[in-house]
C-alpha cells in the first residue's frame, strides 16, 4: 500500500529572538595591567588627597576677593578687578585631574571621579581667551557642562558639589538648564553660589519655586538667592555669603527646613534668633560676629543641641566680652557632645582666598 500522506499542520510562529546582552566596552586593547601599580596611584587614597591639597580649590569659605598674590600677574589682577569671578588659579586642580585621568585606564578609574566630583562654573576665562566678557563665559560654560552631564549619566553620578555663578546672559534658558541638571545628579549634596546679581532675585524665584532637591545637605549662597534654600527641605548646613541672612532664615521657615544643624554668616538680631529657635531647634553649630551684644547671644541658650560656637573676626584682637559670653553659653548647654569655642579669621597675607584659620579656646 502506498504510504499515507501526512496532513500538513500550521507552523508555529517563531519565538522572538532575545536581544543579545550588551557587552561592556573593553577597557583597552593595549592597556598594561601593571599600570595600576605605577606612579601616583600606588599611594593610598588619603595620600593622593594630601598631594591634591597643594592646588587651590573652591571651598565653602571661598569668596570673590581679588587680592594679588605671588601667582597673579598685573594684567590678570586688572582684568579681574571688576569681575565677580574667581581667579584662574582655581583651574589648576581640575586641569591636573583631567590630565591624570587621560593617562591610562587605571588612572582614569582613580582621577575621573575626583574630577567630576565638582561641577564648577564660577572661574574666569582661560589665558587664551581673555577678552570674552565674564557674563558670556559663565553663561556658555553653564550650558555646555550641564548639557554634557545630561548625556552622561555615569558622570552625573559622580557629582557631589555644584559651585556656580549666575549672570543675566540668557538667564531664561541657562537657569532652567541648570535646574534640570541638578535634578539628575543623584549624589549631589552641596550647592554654592559664588555670585548672582541682585536683579536676578525674581528669575531665581521663578526657576526654583515648586521644586524639591532632597539630596542637598549644604547651601552656601548670598541672601538674595534664598529661593534656592526653599527647594532644599533636607538641608543641614546654611551659609550666608552676603547681607545679614534674614532672608535665608525666612526661607528656612517657608521651606520647612527644620533639620538645619549649622548656620554661618548671619547677624544675630533678636527677631531673627526667635524665628530660628522655632524653625531649627536642633541647631548644633553657629558662627557669630565679634562684638555681638549679650542680648542677642542670650537666645543661643534655647538651642539644646548647641555644641560649637565660632567667633568670626578679621584681626587678632577679638573682644573678650564676646568670648566670655560664648563660653558661658556652651558650658551651660545640655548637649552631650564635646563642646568647642573657636576663633576664626583670615590673614590677608598668609591664608588663601576664602580659607579660615581656627584657634580653639579653652572652656575652663
UniProtKB/TrEMBL annotation:
Origin: domain of life: Eukaryota
Disordered as annotated region, ranges: 1-41
Stated name of the protein: F-box domain-containing protein
Annotated source species: Coprinellus micaceus
Amino acid at each position: 500500500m502506498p504510504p499515507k500522506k501526512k496532513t500538513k499542520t500550521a507552523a508555529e510562529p517563531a519565538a522572538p529572538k532575545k536581544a543579545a546582552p550588551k557587552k561592556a566596552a573593553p577597557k583597552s586593547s593595549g592597556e598594561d595591567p601593571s599600570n595600576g601599580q605605577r606612579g601616583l596611584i600606588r599611594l593610598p587614597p588619603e595620600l593622593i588627597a594630601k598631594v591634591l591639597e597643594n592646588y587651590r580649590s573652591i571651598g565653602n569659605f571661598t569668596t570673590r576677593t581679588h587680592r594679588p598674590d605671588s601667582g597673579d600677574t598685573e594684567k590678570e589682577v586688572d582684568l579681574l578687578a571688576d569681575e565677580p569671578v574667581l581667579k584662574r588659579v582655581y583651574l589648576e586642580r581640575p586641569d591636573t585631574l583631567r590630565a591624570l585621568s587621560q593617562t591610562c585606564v587605571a588612572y582614569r578609574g582613580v582621577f575621573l571621579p575626583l574630577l567630576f566630583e565638582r561641577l564648577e562654573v564660577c572661574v574666569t576665562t582661560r589665558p587664551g581667551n581673555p577678552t570674552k566678557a565674564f557674563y558670556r563665559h559663565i553663561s556658555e560654560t553653564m550650558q555646555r557642562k550641564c548639557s554634557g552631564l545630561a548625556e552622561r549619566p555615569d558622570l552625573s553620578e559622580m557629582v557631589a558639589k555644584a559651585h556656580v555663578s549666575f549672570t543675566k546672559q540668557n538667564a531664561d534658558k541657562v537657569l532652567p538648564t541648570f535646574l534640570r541638571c541638578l535634578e539628575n545628579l543623584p549624589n549631589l549634596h552641596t550647592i554654592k553660589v559664588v555670585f548672582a546679581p541682585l536683579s536676578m532675585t525674581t528669575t531665581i524665584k521663578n526657576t526654583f519655586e515648586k521644586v524639591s532637591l532632597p539630596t542637598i545637605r549644604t547651601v552656601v549662597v548670598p541672601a538674595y538667592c534664598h529661593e534656592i534654600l526653599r527647594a532644599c527641605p533636607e538641608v543641614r548646613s546654611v551659609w550666608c555669603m552676603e547681607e545679614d541672612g534674614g532672608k535665608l532664615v525666612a526661607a528656612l521657615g517657608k521651606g520647612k527646613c527644620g533639620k538645619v544643624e549649622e548656620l554661618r554668616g548671619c547677624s544675630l538680631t533678636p527677631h531673627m534668633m526667635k524665628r530660628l529657635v522655632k524653625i531649627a531647634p536642633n541647631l548644633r553649630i553657629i558662627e557669630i560676629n565679634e562684638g555681638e551684644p549679650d542680648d542677642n547671644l542670650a537666645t543661643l541658650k534655647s538651642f539644646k543641641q548647641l555644641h560649637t560656637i565660632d567667633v568670626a573676626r578679621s584681626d587678632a584682637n577679638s573682644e573678650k566680652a564676646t568670648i566670655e559670653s560664648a563660653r558661658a553659653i556652651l558650658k551651660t548647654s545640655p548637649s552631650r557632645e564635646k563642646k568647642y569655642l573657636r576663633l576664626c579669621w583670615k590673614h590677608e597675607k598668609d591664608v588663601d582666598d576664602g580659607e579660615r584659620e581656627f584657634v580653639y579656646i579653652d572652656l575652663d
